[in-house]
Amino acid sequence: MTKTLEQVGKFVELRAKGYSYDKIAEETGISKPTLLKWSTEYSRQLKEAEHFEMNSLLSQYGILRQGRVQAFSSMLGSALQELKKRAEEKDYSEVPTDKLLRIALELERRLEREAEEKKFDNGALGYFKQEEVEVD
Q1: Is residue 29 domain-shared with residue 63, that is, in the same domain?
Q2: Hey, which of 18, 23, 81, 82 has its CA 20 to 30 A from 57?
Q3: HEC profile of the chain
Q4: Residue 57, C-beta contacts closer than 8 angstroms, at least 6 positions apart
Q5: 127 domain-assigned
Q6: Are 34 and 58 members of one domain?
Q7: Does residue 73 share a domain with residue 28?
Q8: Are residues 74 and 125 in the same domain?
């Protein structure tokens, strides 16, 4: 069977996404022994594709976390403003103050956890950035 660039590209894409050789063979119709041979033959392209796939996933995770941090920050700000308003006006009508305070404290804890996770992810990104520096 003569390979086409399209077939090789599909193989590299699926393998970088973590698909098994059996699954790739099933989806592409290319035999598993051929895929194993290509794995060696195109190892550099596979490593590059895996690297870009990992960076993409890390980037998406960072964006999702950024949205959570923004939401928690907004909610915390609103809760603190409401708590301050109620304290100044002595208006404790609908939500008990102790419950509002617990909400504010829980949101602070969540923000602290998010900030700690961000420190860890910078280390992970740093690892990949070091690999990019290597030149043939």
Answers
A1: no
A2: 23
A3: CCCCHHHHHHHHHHHHCCCCHHHHHHHHCCCHHHHHHHHHHCHHHHHHHHHHHHHHHHHHHHHHHHHHHHHHHHHHHHHHHHHHHHHHHCCCCCCCHHHHHHHHHHHHHHHHHHHHHHHHHHHHHHHHHHHHHCCC
A4: none
A5: yes
A6: no
A7: no
A8: yes
Does a structural domain hold residue 46?
A: no
Cα–Cα distance for residue pair 40/105, rounded to 1 Å: 54
Number of domains in the chain: 2
68-72, 89-93, 117-121, 124-128, range with the lowest pLDDT: 124-128
**Domain that residue 85 falls in:** 54-133
Q: What is the pLDDT of residues 51-104, one digit of tens each?
A: 888 888 877 777 777 788 888 888 888 888 887 787 777 665 677 778 888 878
Confidence of residue 120 (pLDDT cuts 50, 70, 90): low
